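Question: Send over one sample?
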Amino acid sequence: MRTILLITIATFIISCESKVEELQVLQGNAFGTTYTIQYFTDDFFDAEKGIDSVIYSVNKSVSTYMPNSDISKINKGDSTVVVDEIFREVFRLSEEIHKQSNGYFDPTIGVLRNAYGFGDVKPLKKIDSLTLDSLLNFVGFQKVTLASDNHISKELPQIYFDFNAVAKGYGIDKIGEFLESKGVRHYVIELGGEILAKGENLQKDQAWTSGIEAIDSAIGNRSYEAVVRLNNEAMAASGNYRKFRIDSATGKKYVHTINPLSGLAEESDVTSATVIANTCAAADAYATTFMALGLSKSKALLNNLSGIDAYLTFNDSLGNNLVYTTKGFEDRLKN
């Protein structure tokens, strides 16, 4: 009997030792872009189905492109919507960064995005100072409230939420949580250029790495000016070098980063912002914030933030393109 027991234990140990975490790769579409997910596992599960469920839940809550989403209903004036945990978490993070940035990060700029042609409706034909003054009445995160009963109240019905500067990163975080719930410890999610990396690349026995795209790289032939090591953290970038619109009537250039205080869709001296944070939602939101703030205000904010590092490209007074990095970001750059 003892001999049989010892053989059984030995067989169990050998069986356990033989289980190897193998690399799995998934590719698909989400949040208006594409994703590639690499993860290591020694156990099969339906990852694609779980990820699709996460994407649907995030879209159902905070996508302005889904007509029946909670945010779309609220934007249309439905005050009966009881928002879910996804909406509440995105709202609270937005509120925190809005305060930290003195209003430069503001998800109530939806009316401005729509006016400039970066939203889900046709742009206004004419945007002058009077138009901006009128639109700015409907902008301001201090004009909206998340009540204890999970209803959203707006001072003015025209206020239009747009969480696009944080929702994609948040969705990536939720995909990461799903993988971890299945026992995955080593993975990297790349979605629309944003990254969430946990553990390490077991095939190469090293940290996950990601490139910082050069602002002059072509879409069909992208080049990278730096490579970053990521250690259980996220990275997101924002830039106006591709995301802009030229008005066909006036020839005026409008960039997708809008100053919520002035209402202007004009470039600051920061041409791109790449941010590393503990979560992709935070990295996503701060990247947009630094684009709106400009270099001087961004540096001041970074000095007061904990757990946020940035790589900012900017133009000096002579038009030269230069780089500013925090010490933490510089330490992550791969030589």
Observations:
- The two ends are 60 Å apart (CA to CA).
- The chain is about 35% helix and 25% strand.
- The chain has three domains: 21-64+163-206, 78-162, 229-335.
